[in-house]
C-alpha cells in the first residue's frame, strides 16, 4: 500500500510532553464499529465486559541513551537490541567519525568497542569489563525519551518514573509500552472487581519503533526485530478466555504484535520465545486478539498502519480527526484509545 495513505496533519501542540496526573485521568477515545465515545481511562471498568482479559507488556525501560567520545569526536548512542551478554546493537549519532574497532568512552568507567556496522547504519557495541551491562548503563546512561519529546525538552528525574509502567519487571526495553502507562494499582483493583482479568508477556521494545517509514510502499519497509516471550501458562490463559467467550485485549501495540506472532492460523496462541519483526498492515487477518488499547500514533508510522489494519483505514482517519478536533493529547505521554472491532 502507498505510505501516503497513512499521512495526516497533527498540530504540534497536540504532542504531550508530560503524562496525565494521576495516570488514569488520561482521556480515552473508544472506537467501535458503531461510533466514537469520549471517555477517560478511569472508565475502563464500565466500558469492558466481565470475562475480558487485558494483556500487558512487563518489559522495563533501561537507561539506553549514552553520550561519549572517541578521541575529540563526540559520539551519541541509543541501544536498541541486545545481541549477547555484553553486546548491544545501537543507533549512533556522528557515526561518520567511527571506525570498526574504535573504543567509545562514555564516562563513569564505561566504554565500548564499535563493531560490525549494519546496512541500516547501526553498530554493535561490545561493552568492556566484567560488570553486568545493566549496571554500567545505570551509571552512564539516561532514559531514552522519544525524539518528539527529547527534541522539545531534556529528560529529567520525573521521567525515570513517568516512563515506566507499573508492570515493568524485565529489563531490556529502550522505549516504554506506553499504553500501559495509564494504569494504576487502584484501577487494576477496580477492573478485577468488574470481572476483567489481566496477564503479562514480555517484548523488549527497540528504538526502531520510532523510525519513520521511508519507503513509498509498505511492501518495501523492513521492520527491526525485537525479542519477546510468552510462556505456556500465559498462552493457556489467553486461549481459555476466548474459548469461554471472553475477549483478549492487548494493552499496547507491543503486546498485540507478540500475541499475533505466537498465534497460529487456527487462532490458538502458543508459547513463543525469540525475535519477531511482524509488520501488520491493512489486509492482515488477526488471529490472537479481539481488541487493542493504545495511544495515538505518528503519521506514516507502522503503528498507525497497525491500528488501521485492526479497525479500517477510513475509521481510524475519522477517529484521529475527531481526537485532534477534541484536543486529545498524542504520542507516548498522551491520551489513549480503545479499539474494539
UniProtKB/TrEMBL annotation:
A Gene Ontology MF term for this entry? Answer: S-adenosylmethionine:tRNA ribosyltransferase-isomerase activity
**Gene3D superfamilies in UniProt:** QueA-like
The regions listed as transmembrane in this protein's record are none
Localization of this protein: Cytoplasm
Q: In which pathway does it act?
A: tRNA modification; tRNA-queuosine biosynthesis
- What reactions does this protein catalyze? 7-aminomethyl-7-carbaguanosine(34) in tRNA + S-adenosyl-L-methionine = epoxyqueuosine(34) in tRNA + adenine + L-methionine + 2 H(+)
Q: One Pfam family of this protein, by short name?
A: Queuosine_synth
Q: Which UniProt keywords apply?
A: Cytoplasm, Glycosyltransferase, Queuosine biosynthesis, S-adenosyl-L-methionine, Transferase
Q: What is its EC number?
A: 2.4.99.17
Q: What is the protein's quaternary organization?
A: Monomer.
Question: What family does the database annotate?
Answer: Belongs to the QueA family.
Q: What does this protein do?
A: Transfers and isomerizes the ribose moiety from AdoMet to the 7-aminomethyl group of 7-deazaguanine (preQ1-tRNA) to give epoxyqueuosine (oQ-tRNA).
The name on file for this protein is S-adenosylmethionine:tRNA ribosyltransferase-isomerase
> To which species is this protein native?
Sphingomonas citri
Taxonomic lineage from the root: Bacteria, Pseudomonadati, Pseudomonadota, Alphaproteobacteria, Sphingomonadales
Amino acid at each position: 500500500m502507498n505510505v501516503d495513505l497513512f499521512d495526516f496533519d497533527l498540530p504540534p501542540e497536540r504532542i504531550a510532553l508530560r503524562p496525565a496526573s494521576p495516570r488514569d485521568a488520561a482521556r480515552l477515545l473508544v472506537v467501535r464499529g458503531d461510533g466514537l465515545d469520549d471517555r477517560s481511562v478511569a472508565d475502563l471498568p464500565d466500558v469492558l465486559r466481565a470475562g475480558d482479559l487485558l494483556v500487558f507488556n512487563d518489559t522495563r525501560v533501561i537507561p539506553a541513551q549514552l553520550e561519549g567520545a572517541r578521541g575529540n569526536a563526540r559520539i551519541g548512542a541509543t541501544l536498541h537490541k541486545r545481541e549477547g551478554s555484553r553486546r548491544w546493537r545501537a543507533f549512533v549519532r556522528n557515526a561518520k567519525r567511527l571506525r570498526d574497532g574504535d573504543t567509545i568512552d562514555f564516562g563513569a568507567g564505561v566504554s565500548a568497542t564499535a563493531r560490525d556496522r549494519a546496512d541500516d547504519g547501526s553498530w554493535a557495541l561490545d561493552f568492556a569489563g566484567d560488570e553486568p551491562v545493566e549496571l554500567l548503563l545505570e551509571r552512564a546512561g539516561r532514559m531514552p525519551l522519544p525524539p518528539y519529546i527529547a527534541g522539545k525538552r531534556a529528560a529529567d528525574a520525573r521521567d525515570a518514573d513517568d516512563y515506566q509502567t507499573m508492570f515493568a519487571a524485565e529489563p531490556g526495553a529502550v522505549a516504554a509500552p506506553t499504553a500501559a502507562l495509564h494504569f494504576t494499582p487502584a484501577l487494576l483493583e477496580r477492573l478485577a472487581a468488574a470481572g476483567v482479568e489481566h496477564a503479562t508477556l514480555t517484548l523488549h521494545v527497540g528504538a526502531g519503533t520510532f523510525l519513520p517509514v521511508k519507503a513509498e510502499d509498505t511492501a518495501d519497509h523492513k521492520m527491526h526485530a525485537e525479542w519477546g516471550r510468552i510462556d505456556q501458562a500465559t498462552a493457556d490463559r489467553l486461549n481459555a478466555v476466548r474459548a469461554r467467550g471472553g475477549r483478549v485485549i492487548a494493552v499496547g501495540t507491543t503486546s498485540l504484535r507478540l500475541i499475533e506472532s505466537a498465534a497460529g492460523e487456527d487462532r490458538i496462541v502458543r508459547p513463543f520465545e525469540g525475535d519477531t519483526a511482524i509488520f501488520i498492515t491493512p489486509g492482515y487477518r488477526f488471529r490472537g486478539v479481539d481488541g487493542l488499547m493504545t495511544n495515538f500514533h505518528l503519521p506514516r508510522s507502522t503503528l498507525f498502519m497497525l491500528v488501521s489494519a485492526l479497525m479500517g483505514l477510513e475509521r481510524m482517519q475519522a477517529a484521529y480527526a475527531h481526537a485532534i478536533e477534541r484536543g486529545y493529547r498524542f504520542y507516548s505521554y498522551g491520551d489513549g484509545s480503545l479499539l474494539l472491532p
